[in-house]
Amino acid sequence: MDSPETSPATTAPDVGAAGFLQWRIWLTPSVLAAAGISVASGFAQFSITAIIGDVAAAFGEQGPGDDIASQIGLTATTLGIALGVIRLASLGSLPGAALADRFGRRRVLLITLTVGLLFTASAAGAPTFWVFVVAVSLARPWLSTVNAIAGVVAAEDVSTAGRSWAIGFVGGAYGFGAGIVAVMRGVLGNPSFRLIALLSLVPLLLMPAIAKLLHEPEIFEESDHAEDVVRHWWPGAVPSQYRTRLLLYAAITFGIALGTGPGFTYLFVYGEQVLGGTPGQLSLLVFSAGPVGFAGLLLGRWASDVLGRRWASAISLAATALTLVVMYRGSLPLFAAGYLLSLLASSAFGPPAGALLAEIFPTAVRATASGWAAAAGVFGAVTGLAGFGVLADRLGSFESAVMVLTVPILLTTVLFLFLPETRGLELDAPEALA
User: What is the dihedral sign for C-alpha 68, 73, 78, 84?
Assistant: First the structure.
């Protein structure tokens, strides 16, 4: 195998040739399997977001008052801490992602998805609110590992001409799985949270077909990753020359999660129990989000290959922060508009940021780097969730809380200037790794 220094295919002059209709470039069997896995992961993880208001109402005590505790059954601080604990559990994905660099992407993906779905389903039998929190917290590390490695598979299984498409497709599959939960609640008339949790077992029926489609990426099998990983390996180890860029990328991931963590997690709580929206209205909103999210992926793919990975990521990150403010302005129309716009922006962030993450790290530590990015996202989401709840209680409104969190998110956009531009480069290209 040619080394990165001598390989003639480190750049791709015709990046724009890949289009959605030219699906053979990027829709490989493994990418399709990774997308199926992401649908299952999205369903299992977002189901907690969709039903957390129902869980709070079932185990808490709603009242006639206008305060947040009376509206949702628990204080925003309690709910924020619980959601923060669930997100914090995702830190366990870091060693899981590191294992994918040592033992392969396929094996780790299949194992972590299976265990994560089983733990999510176990939450159906929770007798108390905090037992429910523990059950879904045990599922989170496994499902977060799935998210990190599925993106790596999408990046490694295609060339640079189709990489943004593949990453966007897998990201969109996660969103599709998440949307199933919301639509189901509207169609079934707000079913019990226990039923929703149990439905996480359904994707296990498709595991044989997914396992048949999923193959180890060729670049991983042919690389000299084994020697590098053994030399540097402990869960999360990255060679010193890549630590600065990893820290920068982690800070960026922290920034976007700081806003989208609470912004999207409180979607149903705020929409239904603060603004008075019905499950049917929220279901329609999330259903409408499907084409909007798809449009965002297309926009992000286009910007990634035309403007470059860095500029596309920075612009979409800033837009995500600003549209979250619109989402929490205090009325259902603005809530709906802000949600759709923030989803458009955050979906556009996925393809360029995912491609950049894959391209600035070598194959030997690519999954580990994705694990660190996921961990940074966890810290951002936990900080945002806990801080959002406390700020909402102290300031008396969700609107004031989200405005405070917007400032640090906007500041992280400048960090893209310190990362290399990788548009048009193949994986392990020396220009990207220098």
Answer: negative
Cβ neighbors of 383 (< 8 A, separation 6 or more) are 254, 258, 261
SS3 content of the chain, % helix, strand, coil (to 5): 80, 0, 20
Q: What is the mean pLDDT of residues 104-124?
A: 91
- Reported residue count of the chain is 434
77: its two tokens? 């601080």
pTM: predicted TM-score of the whole model, two decimal places? 0.74
Which of 278, 408, 296 minimizes the C-alpha distance to 347? 296
Task: Using the Cα atoms of residue 124, residue 125, residue 130 and residue 134 in order, give the sign of their dihedral.
Answer: negative
Residue reference for tokens 């392990």: 428
Run of H or E including 305: helix 279-306
For position 250, what pLDDT does the model report? 92
Contacts with 276 (C-beta within 8 Å, 6 or more apart), sequence order: 332
Phi, psi of 426 (to 5 degrees): -80, 165
Quote the CA–CA distance of 354 and 70 in Å, as a whole number. Answer: 41
313 has a pLDDT exceeding 90: yes
Task: Provide the pLDDT for residue 17.
Answer: 42
Give pLDDT tens digits for 4-20: 333 333 334 344 444 54
Q: Which of 47, 52, 45 is nearest to 129 (CA)?
A: 52
Beta-carbon contacts of residue 212 (< 8 Å; ≥ 6 apart): none
Classify 167 as helix, strand or coil. helix
The values of phi and psi at residue 228, to 5°, are -65, -40
Report the distance separating Cα 280 and Cα 183, nearest Å.
8
- What is the sign of the dihedral through the CA atoms of 301, 307, 309 and 310? negative
Kindly indicate the confidence band of residue 124, based on its pLDDT and cuts at 50, 70 and 90.
confident
- Contact of 324 with 259, CB cutoff 8 Å: yes
Question: How many Cα neighbours within 13 Å face the side chain of 414?
Answer: 4
Secondary structure class of 129 (helix, strand, coil): helix
Residue of 357, 325, 197 whose CA lies nearest to 260: 325
What CA dihedral angle connects 419, 366, 92 and 244, to 10 degrees? -30
pLDDT above 60 (res 88) = yes
Positive or negative, the CA dihedral 421, 412, 44, 403 is negative
Which among 92, 192, 74 is positioned nearest to 130, based on CA atoms? 74
